[in-house]
Hints:
This protein is α+β, with helices and mostly antiparallel strands and 443 residues long. It folds into 3 domains: 36-80 and 138-323, Bira Bifunctional Protein, Domain 2 (BirA Bifunctional Protein, domain 2, 2-Layer Sandwich), CATH 3.30.930.10; 86-132; 349-442, Rossmann fold. 30% of the residues lie in helices and 29% in strands. It is built from 13 helices and 23 strands. The strands form 7 sheets. It has a 7-stranded mixed β-sheet with strand order 3-9-10-16-13-12-11. Strands 20-19-21-22-23 form a 5-stranded mixed β-sheet, with helices on both faces. Helix 2 packs across helix 9 (315-326). The longest helix is centred in the first third of the chain and has 20 residues, at 38-57. It is globular and about 75 Å long. Adenosine-5'-triphosphate is lined by residues 154, 186, 188, 197-198, 201, 203, 270-273, 312-314, 316-317. Adenosine-5'-triphosphate binds at residues 154, 186, 188, 197-198, 201, 203, 270-273, 312-314, 316-317.
Amino acid sequence: MAELTLMDKLVSLAKxxxxxxxxxxxxxxxxxxxxxxxxxxxxxRNVKDRWWHSLVQARDDIEGLDAAIxxxxxxxxxxxHVSGFTDPMVDCRTCKGRFRADKLADARCAQKPSKIPGEHxxxxxxxxxxxxLMFKTFMGPVEETASVVYLRPETAQGIYVNYLNVLNSxxxxxxxxxxxxxxxxxxxxxxxxxxxxxxxFEQMEMQFFxxxxxxxxxxxxxxxxxxxxxxxxxxxxxxxxxxxxxDGELAHYAKAAYDIEYEFAFGWQEIEGIHNRTDFDxxxxxxxxxxxxxxxEQASGERxxxxxxxxxxxxxRVTLTVMTDAYREEDVEGEVRVVLGFHPSIAPIKAAVLPxxxxxxxxxxxEQLYHDIKRRVPAYYDDGGAIGRRYRRQDEIGxxxxxxxxxxxxxDRTVTVRHRDTMQQERxxxxxxxxxxxxxxxx
Length: 443
Ligand code: ATP
């Protein structure tokens, strides 16, 4: 059998253990749309919570927002998405494959041996055609041009059109930011690599409004903060790097753009973009809406359109990144031990409680401990099978600590703590378990 790739292993583990399932699987699935199961939803939520906490909760200069997915269609004319949110698409007349013309080097054709599309003698590619990535639908019962609305392809526009609402209803002054987490939709031509590129995904975007002239400085500051956030998430810093957009790559709205890239098995890929969007978006919304969006700076008595520094990350993409980074296989006494070595703060389950046997009063103590822990942090109770197997089951889903109740517990009221990463064990008092966990999770 061909050797499984890391991605094959992750997809299979994700399904088997309830992280991620293919959407509508019983009907054969829907292309590049995925559902998060019990552990996946917890993992992704933990990633989003850390993002929200670091920006909205821990800082005084950023406010939160949750704008609707459906927006006035003029928003997308103003933003340039109706005319310009396109990718060049080529089709192969031989294999019927469809590829992004600007990403051919990353693609492989269906011919054998598989090559970059266009490089095999049998390839017969069409000229590139521009393809708009926005999903369209209709508002109301009549399907006519006048009622076309779009599923938003980015969350940022909901922030721009609300920036004055937030400013006027909070006590913020420029510089300040607005953060939002929400769904975005793109009819991608070549989605793939599991949840890396999907047609429905979640973005974690923050737009920081600054005085023109201070934008370069803020851009650098945000680059630093965002890279550190990924490192604090537990990602291996050696697998993170910057990619600066050259002139040909810069989006129409951007003065400068850097991507944070991670080295996946399928190459270095963007996980977050930091963009200096200037006053492009606010300027366009001012023009298309006819409403003044200028900021009045009391100290100087000046009016101006703020510049915007954007940090834009994909919640699903970061979730895939933490799963990829955390995955490891170890040889333990001739057996493979699979571990998801998540940073404890994002591990879906923080602690497992395991009674060594199902008798002698051990389950009663273990259940009590489990309920005590579960009131504070997500926990799991497992009394099935050999203790070694139970530890492995927790390793595979990334549970940092297992607490085992055994016969000694009956006499000395202590339990074994078994550590996921080192497999080492120590003994602590039953009444020390909660403080033990909370102090480590706060660290
Ligand atoms: P790419 O070049 O990979 O298509 P992009 O430059 O269009 O990405 P942005 O518009 O900058 O991406 O989006 C910001 C972030 O949103 C990306 O860094 C990524 O994490 C996430 N993202 C964008 N498109 C998708 C998608 N189709 N599926 C999952 N996440 C996505």
